[in-house]
């Protein structure tokens, strides 16, 4: 009953005219930035942080949360219509969504994406509403040692799951943590790493750092690379679904919702729900498996629901543990602190009115998304007609204005552009930017919990393995660090065991290259070329397919081998 009473209070706040306006603006801006590749919710929220200074906490957070989940749907529009994913989470929608568009079924594809987003957003908000108070009540009992290990585990997982070089991800994380150390020591009171510059005694403003690393490099990269050739041509799209479309989409919507929500609970995994959902839907499909990669509506319904459900899942650890699971959530974490609020175990009890207003606004925002996006699909696609030079020059101007508004001095603008150039260099040389921002956010909490734990234990490091929960977290940290070295060995053993049971010889190439890279989307059972070739993701242990090629490739077996396998299956059945 307490949950219902709190939710009623939340709706009373969220339904006020001013908060309804900000919820509408949030989902509208979110959809627009989701449509434009390279902008996304992270950049949009970073740009609007200076604007949120002038708003009260409820209105400001409703606006920014609306941008967050609005962008999740916006990216699917261009993925389906012109095979241009606006967000990484909508990459999977290009496979079957674009194939449906080529067959004149872009309308049903957009409809199942919109309804799936609504279902996922609503159900994941219910799960958020039920799980957040429970987890908050449990996490209150966490000691400083447990909290330090929890933050360290999240930091390592986020660094490992960015894709690309683990070394570069680690360097980016350390860079972000080093930037967080600039300024006055919170306990000793002396300046650190300021180089004698008085303006740095207050530290580096997170909003400036975020705008510099996300907005400036993307703008510079788009201004220096070759311009887009022409605007996409999209005709009128009638968004409707037949009875058969509804029947085929319903189960994938709910499967994708629960999968995406629980994947979103894990740090760094929120956007990967759709990558898990697609092969799951393909494997579970019985009557329409052959359509995957050629226009199966299940291939759009499941991944879109999983992508949107990750929003609710990611908010649970943010609200209850103070752990942001993505760069976008790291920005929301900063906005909370900007308003004098500390995400974590005490937030649900001390600021219950604020949290329940945000939860209620998510219900409202999901309805607004459904009503808003279906009739305005064609209008949103026209945003791609804006020339790169005008669009990204405007982004740079807005960034400069925002940096000046934060400090009202040229030093803030100079700091922003210095870090912007550093971010551009990192992006050019393929250093991931997200770990730097996560490192900046988590470093102060890591430092304070580490110092507090050592003070309580009189400097005894054994405190970090004191108790079952601390030991469990320490073991998990060790496993996550050792996983890249252990997984190939485990797979190599699996290959040998499989060969022994099947009485076949193991090739040298299989032992030298036993697995793909699990840290990139191409390691989740499909190749980087699948989306371009119109082929659906292949299961990591596909039925009737053979592994060949490089580390990240799963290629279909030859036609002759398929025929032999099918014949063998028929003989076995007989």
Number of strands: 2
Unreliable residue stretches? 228-232, 516-574
Q: How do the helices and strands follow one another from N- to C-terminus?
A: HHHHHHHHEEHHHHHHHHHHHHHHH
**How many H/I helices?**
23
Q: How would you classify the helix and strand content by structural class?
A: mainly alpha
How far apart are the termini? 59 Å
Strand order of the largest sheet: 1-2
**Mean pLDDT, as a whole number?**
76
Total separate domains: 2
Q: Rg to the nearest angstrom?
A: 24 Å
What would you note in describing this structure?
By secondary structure, the protein is mainly alpha-helical. It folds into 2 domains: 2-141 and 205-409, no CATH class; 499-573, no CATH class. Helices cover 68% and strands 1% of the residues. The chain has 23 helices and 2 strands. Strands 1-2 form a two-stranded antiparallel ribbon. A hairpin with a 6-residue loop joins strand 1 (183-184) and strand 2 (191-192). Helix 4 (57-82) crosses helix 5 (93-102), helix 6 packs parallel to helix 12 and helix 7 (144-160) runs parallel beside helix 20 (468-502). The model is unreliable at 228-232 and 516-574 (pLDDT under 50).
Keywords:
mainly alpha, 2 domains, two-stranded antiparallel ribbon, 23 helices, 68% helix, globular, disordered C terminus, membrane
Overview in brief:
68% of the residues lie in helices and 1% in strands.
List the helices and strands and how they pair.
Blueprint: H1 2-14, H2 17-35, H3 40-52, H4 57-82, H5 93-102, H6 106-139, H7 144-160, H8 166-181, E1 183-184, E2 191-192, H9 206-224, H10 243-264, H11 273-284, H12 298-321, H13 327-338, H14 347-350, H15 352-373, H16 377-381, H17 388-407, H18 410-428, H19 434-456, H20 468-502, H21 508-512, H22 530-533, H23 559-573
Antiparallel strand pairs: 1-2
Helix pairs in contact: 1-15, 2-4, 2-15, 3-4, 3-9, 3-13, 3-17, 4-5, 4-6, 4-12, 4-13, 4-15, 5-6, 5-12, 6-10, 6-12, 6-15, 7-19, 7-20, 8-19, 9-17, 9-18, 10-11, 10-12, 11-12, 13-19, 17-18
